[in-house]
């Protein structure tokens, strides 16, 4: 073989290797598909058909009988060529419908070979999850989905969640038999309308707190009502009432009272129509168990005032500060000198 032919062969091999490498890199660096508001399609082999679903029906060797049909509002396949009797499809699987279509065409064709595939699933209304979640969205469910999975899909609940989840059923389940969307949890049996669940029960893994969400359901993670901790606390803040919030817990969550706080006379400004009530409580007595703790109400304002310098508490704290400062100076002199 001449030198020119060898050089040409080498160039062809290099180009082929380069193209192969580029294709491999393109496949490796291809961007991941963006997430959507649809639960994945794992486990939909038992998908039960319904009105609006689109089927791709093929009769092998009979192209004039193959067609794409939509299940009508009555739940039937009624537009197949040469078939006058509708084929029942609602609440049945594609394999069951496929068998019935083959039986129907067997009257005209010897041993017809029929395939039925679901081309579009449009019979289920999307569920909506809203409220105190990170990404409120509508979710199209291709399979059975429980509450915890729907919340996870929405990014989980936020710090403003009250601890209660509300599920409103907007429509009855389409199919009465067992199957996808039909394995109802205990809390769903006999109910149609609105049901409440607790986040604490869901976190504890209780089955009755993790129901199957139906298509069309509206799931609302309720936001808690706020209370406000102000004045002489380490960290004045807004808190969200979950199941229950008491005065002592609220002050503790705000970092506790400062040294000069007037803890024997804490004010709770409670909202009412046309104004507010000024309620006074001895926080020192509550901490010692001498008085009952106080349950806070939505939009309460807890005001921890500063003790007067000439009050017993103020003078006591002042003297303690002087003693600490003096002790610090003596100790420092002893160490340095």
Quick structural gist:
This protein has 337 residues and is α+β, with helices and mostly antiparallel strands.
Question: Would you write up a description of this structure?
Answer:
With 337 residues, the chain is α+β, with helices and mostly antiparallel strands. The chain folds into 3 domains: 54-120, wza like fold (2-Layer Sandwich); 127-223, Outer membrane lipoprotein wza domain like (Outer membrane lipoprotein wza fold like), CATH 3.10.560.10; 226-304, Roll (Outer membrane lipoprotein wza fold like), CATH 3.10.560.10. It has helices at residues 3-29, 94-105, 147-153, 199-203, 247-253, 283-287, 312-336, and strands spanning 54-59, 67-70, 76-77, 87-88, 114-120, 127-131, 137-139, 161-168, 194-198, 218-223, 226-231, 237-240, 266-272, 275-281, 301-304. The strands form 4 sheets. It has a 5-stranded mixed β-sheet. A 5-stranded mixed β-sheet has the order 12-11-15-13-14, with helices on one face.
């Amino acid at each position: 073989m001449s030198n020119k032919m060898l050089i040409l062969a080498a160039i062809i091999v290099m180009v082929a290797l380069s193209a192969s490498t580029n294709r491999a890199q393109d496949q490796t660096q291809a961007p991941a598909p963006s997430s959507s508001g649809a639960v994945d399609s794992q486990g939909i082999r038992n998908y039960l058909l319904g009105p609006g679903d689109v089927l791709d029906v093929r009769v092998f060797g009979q192209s004039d009988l193959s067609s794409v049909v939509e299940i009508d509002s009555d739940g039937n396949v009624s537009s197949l060529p040469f078939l006058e009797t509708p084929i029942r499809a609602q609440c049945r699987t594609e394999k069951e419908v496929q068998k019935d279509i083959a039986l129907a065409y067997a009257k005209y064709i010897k041993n017809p070979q029929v395939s039925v595939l679901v081309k579009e699933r449009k019979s289920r209304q999307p569920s909506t999850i809203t409220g105190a979640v990170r990404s409120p969205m509508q979710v199209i469910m291709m399979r059975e989905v429980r509450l915890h999975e729907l919340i996870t899909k929405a990014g989980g609940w936020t710090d403003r969640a009250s601890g209660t989840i509300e599920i409103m059923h907007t429509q009855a389940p389409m199919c009465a038999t067992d199957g996808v969307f039909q394995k109802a949890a205990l809390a769903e049996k006999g109910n149609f309308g609105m049901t409440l669940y607790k986040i604490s029960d869901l976190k504890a893994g209780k089955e009755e707190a993790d129901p199957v969400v139906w298509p069309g359901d509206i799931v609302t993670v309720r936001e808690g009502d706020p209370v406000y901790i102000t004045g002489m606390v380490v960290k004045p803040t807004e808190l969200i009432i979950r199941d229950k919030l008491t005065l002592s817990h609220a002050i503790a969550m705000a970092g506790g009272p400062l040294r000069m706080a007037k803890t024997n006379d804490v004010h709770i400004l409670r909202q009412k129509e046309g104004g507010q009530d000024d309620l006074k409580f001895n926080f020192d007595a509550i901490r010692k168990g001498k008085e009952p703790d106080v349950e806070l109400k939505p939009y309460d304002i807890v005001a921890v005032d500063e003790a007067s310098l000439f009050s017993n508490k103020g003078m006591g704290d002042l003297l303690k500060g002087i003693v600490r400062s003096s002790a610090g100076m003596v100790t420092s002199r002893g160490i340095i000198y």
